[in-house]
Amino acid sequence: MARVTLGSECWPFTNGQSDFDIEAATVRDVIAALDARFPGLGAFADKRMAFAIDGVIHQDAWFSAVGPDSEVYLIPKIGGG
To answer: Domain-by-domain residue ranges, the chain?
Structure first.
């Protein structure tokens, strides 16, 4: 199972819990699993967070692969102007 760590922006959905083991093959699966566990978190993460998978940051990464031993971190997306 992949280890998912949430940034503090996500904590209101989880009552402060930040680490989870999730069965997922893609970022889309991670989003769906988070939303199933914590309604609303999936949509929030999809729109507002970037995903760092094994040290590589992905923005808009729905189909990026997540391995069974991956470490996935949700971090705020970087905005620009």
So the answer is: 2-76
Rounded percentage of the chain residues whose pLDDT exceeds 70: 98
Write out the DSSP string of 16-51.
Answer: T--EEEE--SBHHHHHHHHHHHSTTHHHHHHHHEEE
Phi first, then psi: give them for residue 8, nearest 5 degrees: -60, -20
What is the domain class of 2-76 according to CATH? Answer: alpha beta
The 10s digit of each residue's pLDDT in 33-56 is 999 999 999 999 999 999 999 999
What lies within 8 Å, CB to CB, of 16 at 6+ separation is none
